[in-house]
Amino acid sequence: MAAKKAEQGLVNQWRDILAVHARTLCELDRELHRHGLGASDFEVLDVLADGTPSGGGAAFRVQEISERVHLSQSALSRLIGRLEKDGLVTRGLCEEDRRGVRVCLTPKGRELHGEVLPVQRAVLTRMLAGEPASACE
User: Fold this and answer.
1) Dihedrals φ, ψ of 50, to 5°?
2) I need a labelling partner for 17 at 20 to 30 A (CA). Which of 24, 92, 108, 118 fits?
């Protein structure tokens, strides 16, 4: 009986985590939409703006970004294509491996990231610091 109760506690905890994630993602999408971005778009810009790619320089390999934003390779490639079309990132061949692609922010992408960063951080603070969440529409 105690084992079953402990197991149910873990299941309830997992469901709570999923609910917080879903509400937070929804709120991020709602707030970032005003700036022409979704939550995943912002995550890619944030990785590019704040991270240090392996091998130095300013450009990340697509695989490195994928590991940080938890998107499949194909979903990330499509997202990067949209960001490139919007002039927020550029893509180029990887010098050390011609099969690889490197991505970096454009000045326009860096500017938009800086503009939207406080919005994203405010949502995270509001949603993860225990304040009441708004309903997803």
Assistant:
1) -105, -20
2) 118
